[in-house]
Design brief:
binds zinc ion; alpha+beta; Aminopeptidase; elongated; 4-stranded antiparallel beta sheet; Alpha-Beta Plaits
Length: 437
């Protein structure tokens, strides 16, 4: 059966993606991106409101009596220097909130999210005769700061546009091109960040006996903090304590007054979370005391995201909907004769059918990987996969996959995006499997 032409072709989507990728914008500065979204949405018949929670865009399509579905994409980029070598790589620089001149890159994939949601918006507007209800498309600012979703809620998102029955969010992740994943229940860990200032007493490096050396104190503290997971957390539980930053001193023969640690904690279980945070405080204070510090340490919590728990019934319903959708090509993967090279050496066929992981407990790593005649890891297949063609993978997702080598930070940041949904305080749906990222 011949396929019906879609409102946005693969070429149009790819061009939009490349344009967004080449023009990244920092958090709460997504003016160009928001304008592109608003202009297109208005042209497709959406009732568009801009400037919600800063640069946020809300597009409503009231399609008669029925439920309200909120579809969300985040728009902001990161202060990262792009080194992908792509012909549409970002060369953008901008001033960050502190006034520093920084490079800017869509290193977290929000350019993909905007592209996907605009593609869906075009499709849903063209197909409005086939469903009833209200669509509420949200293009959210400042996910990277963790405050964009809250800014929109604080700006009256639900009071002004209605409270949705379901929220659908997504994030690109390290899956092969043409594959999506979804998961019921607990899907992303909680994240807590803090800055610890350890106070010592500085002095000349030749007379340590007259000082309280905060560098030795910091070193002991860092090592002791590692015992929280290894010695205080059950093997059946999960936690991560990372000290990502340690700064003290400026000269080799001067003992400084203080050392500053910056920590991040990932947990799944609220009880483990509280216990881990309490253990950090206990160890930091005790090590300071053990060193004879002149005053207790300062512990400042700088960021906190709850874990993400996807609504189980909602995931099941989306899962069923994806399966029920008509296939783009019978028989799964379509071979077109040309190949697209992905980062990390993976190779994927162009324009193949979409495969779906989930929504149960399968993890992507459990999927078998096949090698081609040259022994290269290529397309993956496994019992968790089902060939599908409901969602167009095409060049956009291949482009995502090409960028997988851009940095693991993108995947870590994915958690923050998903966690932002938690701030919306309504049933949530997000694609992925349980992760500490
Ligand atoms: Zn992200």
């Amino acid at each position: 059966m011949a396929e019906r032409p879609l409102p946005m072709s693969d070429d149009e989507l790819a061009a939009l993606y490349r344009d967004l990728h080449a023009h990244p914008e920092l958090s709460f500065c997504e003016h160009r991106t928001a304008a592109i979204a608003a202009e297109r949405l208005a042209a497709w018949g959406y009732d568009v409101t801009t400037g919600v929670g800063g640069t946020g865009v809300v597009a409503v399509l009231d399609n008669g009596p029925g439920p309200t579905a909120l579809l969300r994409a985040d728009m902001d980029a990161l202060p990262v220097q792009e080194q992908t070598g792509l012909d549409y790589a970002s060369v953008v620089r901008a001033n960050d909130a502190a006034g520093n001149d920084v490079p800017v890159m869509h290193a977290c994939g929000h350019d993909v999210h905007v592209t996907c949601l605009l593609g869906a918006a075009a499709h849903l507007a063209a197909d409005r005769g086939r469903y009833a209800g209200k669509l509420m498309l949200v293009f959210q600012p400042a996910e990277e700061l963790g405050s964009g979703a809250q800014a929109m809620v604080d700006d009256g998102l639900y009071e002004r546009f209605g409270r949705p029955d379901v929220v659908l969010g997504q994030h690109v992740g390290p899956l092969p091109a043409g594959m999506i994943g979804m998961h019921q229940g607990l899907s992303y860990s909680a994240s807590d960040s803090m800055t610890v200032t350890l106070h010592g007493r500085g002095g000349h490096g030749s007379r340590p006996e007259a000082t309280v050396d905060p560098i030795v104190l910091a070193a002991a503290t860092v090592l002791r903090l590692q015992t929280i997971v290894s010695r205080e957390t059950s093997s059946t539980e999960s936690a991560v304590v990372t000290i990502g930053s340690l700064h003290a001193g400026a000269k080799e023969n001067v003992i400084p007054d203080e050392a500053v640690l910056r920590l991040n904690v990932r947990t799944f279980n609220p009880r483990v979370r509280q216990r881990t945070l309490a253990a950090i405080e206990r160890i930091v204070r005790a090590e300071s005391q053990a060193s004879g510090a002149p005053k207790p340490p300062d512990i400042d919590y700088t960021g906190s995201f709850p874990s993400l728990v996807n609504d189980e019934a909602g995931v099941a319903r989306v899962w069923g909907g994806v399966h029920a959708a008509p296939r783009r090509r019978a028989g799964g993967r379509q071979r077109t004769g040309h190949r697209q090279r992905g980062c990390g050496g993976a190779r994927h066929r162009g324009r193949r059918a979409v495969r779906v992981l989930g929504p149960g407990r399968q993890r992507p790593r459990a999927v078998r990987r096949r090698r081609d005649a040259q022994g290269r890891l290529g397309g993956r297949a496994g019992p968790a996969e089902q060939p599908l063609a409901a969602v167009r993978a095409g060049r956009v997702t291949d482009a995502v996959d090409r960028r997988r080598g851009a940095g693991d930070g993108r995947a870590r940041l994915a958690a923050r995006s998903v966690s932002s949904l938690a701030a919306l305080d309504i049933p949530r749906l997000v694609a992925w499997t349980p992760s500490r990222q």
